[in-house]
Amino acid sequence: xxxxxxxxxxxxxxxxGIGKAIADKLAAEGGTVVAADVNGExxxxxxxxxxxxxxxxxxxxxxxxxxxxxxTSRFGKLDVLVNNAxxxxxxxxxxxxxxxxxxxxxxxLDGVFLTCHHAQTPMREAGYGRIVNIVSNVIxxxxxxxAHYVASKxxxxxxxxxxxxEIGKYGITxxxxxxxxxxxxxxxxxxxxxxxxxxxxxxxxPRRGVAADIxxxxxxxxxxxxxxxxxxxxxxxxxxxHS
Length: 243
Fold this sequence. Notes:
The protein is an alpha/beta fold. It is built from 9 helices and 9 strands.
């Protein structure tokens, strides 16, 4: 018996990294998983057996609506939404112009609004739902070269708390998971890869985090077991920000 037997889940940004690890974990727990990603081929490759892969740009409302409609028409319902899709930039503050600011906000913050806005409808009709928003421990640390990213993820956490208050009466929980620096394809291909040694010094557990370290926290919050947990931030970063 898995934690998610009989449940249908959408995971955004699921083509690689933490998103793919989450999709795999939810499927291993018995869930039917729709892997959504702006990289459509990657989404199809990442989709666990029995699920589906869809190309979706979460910053575009018509595409998000199609994601929810196709999920419910194909699988009959929608129980779980994991908002993992995000752009992680590396941009010094002096280089953040308004176009760059809006590019990050459109995906990282607007995208979470759009998915929650459309996914809540089938959840409300069913009287059950689990929404898990992936934020980042940078909202606690104010990490440099990420001002717009930190702002977007701080917005997602604040929105998580507000939305939990608004839709709890429908049987829907809304929580956030904050990973620390995690070894993924995206991170290793960016200047953030140079931060691992420094980050490990600050962690209680001195090794690199990997995507599979993050997924179990998400699976718990996505399960029936977490029915009495809502509006919360679960930090999965080896204790880096435990103080």
